[in-house]
Write a sequence for this structure.
């Protein structure tokens, strides 16, 4: 027996003591420096701590250390530190620039002579170099330079003012010399004060500290004004002193001033100078013959009238010649004319002299401008030189303007010599250009003559040819080559143009004759079309045969597009009108829509609404609904009551007749408006009068499809009800898919006999087709056809837009080297597995390598053009690929080549080339 023991075999152990609390995490070493930025609980608090720390202006080393640690934790908070570091780097760079430009400014200010242009250039160049002109010390230096410039400009302005003041003082002295000497004596004191004040101001200007920086012409201007004023003032003082002495002493000599001398003579009781001269002239003048005096007066008056006329009209040269003639007449007959006529002659000569001086001055101004233009023809900046023709025209115009200037005033031989030398120097370049033009003209003339000879040889070689399309194409090519030929002289071009027109007329004569005959045949066909359209019953076979003849004629003989279009419109119009009448008749029979037509119309409208929405999923859903409506079948025709057969006989006959008419219009790929004729052919059956409704027995079942016998389909599966394939058949206006409703009526066979003239006898005996359900109405058929076409176009457009956006995102990811921006594989198109991963890795890696060969392989694979600068490289690569027969082609390795290109650096030209290549490759 076992002793009773406790069931708990584990020894009693004391209750464990509670574990001590987890020690707090150690603070970051930089947490104390930044004021607790690293221990902040949220990103906002961390950014606030960083801003507070940056307000203390920490050093660059601390900034770098904190940024390194903080950027790994919170990039948003580290952004402010990065901006401060970049600002410090910019400030450091600007300090170096500021020191450099400050040194240049100090050199300018320390120079004894400051050039205003250099000071202005310093400010402009410093701003271009990015120097901080708004900060010290550049701001203070800029202000100092501006003050110096202002001081120098003020000195120059004051010099000009002093010059004008000197001129005014000299004019005051001259005015006093024409008045009484007593007035001059009264004004002498005030005038002496003004002259002394002028001299003091001139001395102040010369003693200014910035006087050495003034332009060289201003000191010489001030010296000339000073010397002229002092000379006039000294002469005035000496003449006034002599006049006062002569007024007090009768024995003293008279002054040199005529007015003052006459005043002294009048005071002494002596005759004046004018009176003495008149007395001498009267005493020396002998008595003249009255007849001779009359002739002398008449001759002088005629010369005077001629001079006054030229002076009034402003003719400089004419006035000069007339003045010479008047002087000669006055020299010959001056002793025989009276005092009044002599005064008139003197007045006219003075006016002519003023006009001549003015004309000479204005003509010299014009000549100086022409000389400057002539000298500037060869002194134009680089890249703005005039071409040969423009230089020749400019020289011709300058010489014409010089001739006009010579006509308006006397010639200036010195200026003419300079002008002629400048024109001759420029004309040397014109001669070089003219020699080049002559060489090119001779070459172009030889090319045109060779082209004319080639055209004549072509005429001889193609005389028996009747391929009018090729002949017209060759003639167009000859015309293009003639127009693209180079420039020749006007005379040579007139000769060559006459020979060209003759050769071209001879070459195009057979084509023109064939076109005239074709026009006659087409007009006959137009008349035949009018006759067919006017018939009460439209003959479809005749219409088809006439359309075939028209197409044959249009394809054999080309014509001018506008003329051919007019003939085609005239041919088509009567047939379209006839077909329109038949269509209206058929529509009147089928005016009521069936339930299936109404369903198709509703589905078509819903699809059109989805097309306008621009949503691909909505468009596809509406398209599926339309397809279901088209495939829906009504109750079989055989299930209808037999009693209803007589009522449906007439519409059935009309529909069968319409099915026969639908095959009337042939396919016209050449003419632009054939669909109207084809659509009209669909309505021919409605024009035939419907037979009287008679009871029609149900059609016997001749054949029945037990399965789907189309290629690739299961034969044991039942064939899909309704019409297969795309609604509307293969062509836009084809109705074969909806007009074939079983065996054709025997009326067509009876009308055409056993074998019609188109060789379709065997096809008339083919087995009847299965019943494909009721025929769609014209409105429903056109509505569903247009809606489907619009939906397919909208889907293609949306797919193209999505593909273009994906490529744009891909180029953006490459330029930023951010693999996260790369679109997904399904957005890019058809890609092999792993291609997008390799592209993403290439973008994420640093740019390296050379992708020029890979880019050329991509362009070769996509069959897109290569830029002109890379054409030679592409040709060389193609030659290398010809020698590597076992290497894969660019079409096989284009995805790897894209990865190689993405691994390189991105630029605008490479991105454009890659995008063009991928547009083509991703669609294959």
């Amino acid at each position: 027996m076992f002793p009773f023991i406790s069931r708990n075999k584990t020894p009693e152990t004391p209750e464990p003591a509670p574990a001590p609390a987890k020690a707090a995490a150690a603070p970051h070493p930089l947490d104390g420096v930044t004021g607790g930025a690293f221990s902040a609980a949220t990103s906002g608090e961390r950014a606030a701590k960083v801003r507070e720390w940056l307000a203390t202006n920490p050093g660059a080393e601390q900034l770098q250390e904190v940024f390194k640690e903080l950027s790994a934790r919170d990039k948003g908070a580290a952004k402010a530190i990065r901006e401060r570091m970049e600002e410090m780097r910019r400030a450091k760079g600007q300090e170096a620039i500021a020191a450099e430009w400050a040194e240049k400014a100090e050199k300018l200010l320390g120079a004894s002579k400051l050039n205003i242009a250099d000071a202005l250039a310093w400010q402009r160049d410093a701003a271009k170099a990015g120097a901080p002109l708004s900060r010290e010390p550049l701001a203070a230096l800029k202000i100092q330079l501006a003050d110096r410039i202002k001081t120098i400009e003020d000195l120059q302005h004051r010099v000009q003012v002093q010059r004008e003041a000197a001129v005014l003082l000299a004019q005051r002295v001259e005015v006093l010399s024409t008045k009484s000497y007593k007035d001059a004596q009264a004004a002498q004191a005030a005038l002496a004060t003004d002259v002394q004040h002028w001299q003091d101001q001139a001395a102040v200007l010369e003693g200014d500290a910035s006087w050495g920086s003034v332009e060289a012409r201003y000191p010489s201007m001030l010296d000339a004004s000073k010397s002229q004023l002092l000379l006039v003032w000294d002469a005035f003082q000496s003449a006034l002193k002599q006049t006062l002495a002569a007024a007090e002493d009768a024995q003293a000599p008279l002054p040199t001033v005529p007015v003052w001398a006459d005043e002294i003579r009048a005071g002494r009781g002596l005759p004046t100078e004018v009176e003495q001269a008149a007395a001498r002239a009267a005493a020396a003048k002998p008595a003249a013959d009255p007849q001779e005096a009359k002739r002398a007066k008449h001759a002088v008056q005629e010369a005077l009238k001629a001079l006054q006329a030229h002076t009034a009209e402003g003719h400089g040269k004419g006035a000069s010649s007339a003045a010479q003639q008047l002087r000669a007449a006055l020299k010959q007959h001056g002793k025989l004319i009276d005092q009044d006529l002599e005064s008139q002659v003197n007045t006219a000569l003075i006016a002519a002299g003023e006009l001549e001086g003015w004309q000479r001055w204005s003509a010299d101004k014009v000549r100086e401008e022409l000389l400057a233009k002539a000298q500037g023809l060869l002194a134009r900046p680089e890249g703005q030189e005039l071409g040969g023709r423009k230089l020749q025209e400019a020289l011709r115009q300058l010489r014409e303007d010089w001739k006009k200037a010579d006509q308006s005033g006397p010639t200036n031989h010195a200026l003419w010599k300079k002008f002629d030398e400048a024109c001759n120097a420029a004309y040397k370049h014109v001669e070089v250009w003219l020699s080049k033009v002559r060489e090119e003209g001779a070459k172009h003339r030889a090319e045109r003559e060779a082209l004319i000879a080639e055209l004549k040889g072509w005429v001889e070689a193609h005389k028996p040819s009747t391929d009018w399309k090729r002949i017209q194409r060759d003639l167009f090519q000859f015309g293009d080559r003639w127009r693209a030929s180079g420039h020749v002289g006007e005379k040579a071009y007139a000769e060559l143009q006459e020979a060209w027109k003759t050769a071209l007329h001879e070459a195009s004569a057979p084509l023109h004759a064939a076109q005239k005959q074709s026009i006659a045949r087409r007009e006959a066909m137009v008349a035949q079309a009018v006759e067919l359209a006017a018939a009460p019953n439209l003959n479809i076979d005749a219409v088809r045969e006439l359309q075939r003849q028209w197409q044959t004629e249009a394809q054999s003989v080309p014509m001018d597009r506008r003329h051919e279009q007019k003939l085609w419109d005239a041919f088509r119009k009567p047939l379209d009108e006839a077909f329109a009448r038949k269509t209206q008749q058929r529509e009147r029979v089928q005016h009521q829509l069936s339930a299936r037509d109404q369903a198709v119309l509703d589905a078509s409208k819903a699809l059109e609404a989805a097309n306008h929405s621009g949503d691909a999923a909505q468009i596809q859903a509406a398209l599926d609904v339309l397809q279901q409506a088209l495939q829906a079948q009504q109750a079989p025709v055989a299930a209808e009551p037999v009693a209803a057969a007589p009522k449906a006989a007439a519409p059935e006959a009309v529909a069968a007749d319409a099915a026969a008419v639908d095959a009337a219009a042939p396919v016209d790929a050449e003419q632009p408006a054939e669909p109207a004729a084809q659509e009209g052919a669909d309505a021919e059956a409605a024009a035939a009068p419907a037979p009287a409704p008679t009871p029609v027995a149900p059609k016997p079942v001749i054949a029945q499809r037990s399965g789907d016998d189309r290629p690739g389909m299961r034969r044991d599966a039942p064939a899909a009800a309704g019409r297969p394939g795309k609604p509307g058949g293969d062509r836009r206006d084809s109705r074969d898919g909806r007009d074939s409703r079983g065996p054709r009526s025997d009326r067509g066979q009876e009308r055409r006999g056993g074998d019609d003239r188109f060789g379709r006898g065997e096809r008339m005996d083919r087995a009847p087709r299965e019943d494909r359900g009721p025929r769609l109405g014209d409105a429903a058929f056109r509505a569903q056809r247009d809606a489907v076409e619009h939906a397919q176009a909208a889907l293609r457009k949306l797919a193209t837009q999505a593909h273009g956006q994906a490529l744009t995102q891909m180029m953006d990811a490459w330029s930023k080297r951010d693999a996260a921006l790369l679109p997904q594989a399904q957005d890019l198109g058809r890609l092999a597995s792993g291609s997008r991963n390799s592209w993403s890795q290439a973008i994420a890696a640093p740019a390296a390598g050379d992708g020029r060969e890979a880019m050329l392989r991509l362009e070769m694979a996509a069959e897109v053009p290569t830029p002109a600068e890379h054409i030679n490289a592409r040709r060389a690569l193609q030659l290398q690929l010809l020698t590597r027969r076992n290497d894969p082609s660019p079409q096989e390795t284009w995805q790897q080549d894209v990865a190689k290109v993405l691994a390189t650096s991105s630029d605008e030209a490479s991105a454009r080339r890659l995008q063009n290549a991928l547009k083509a490759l991703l669609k294959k």
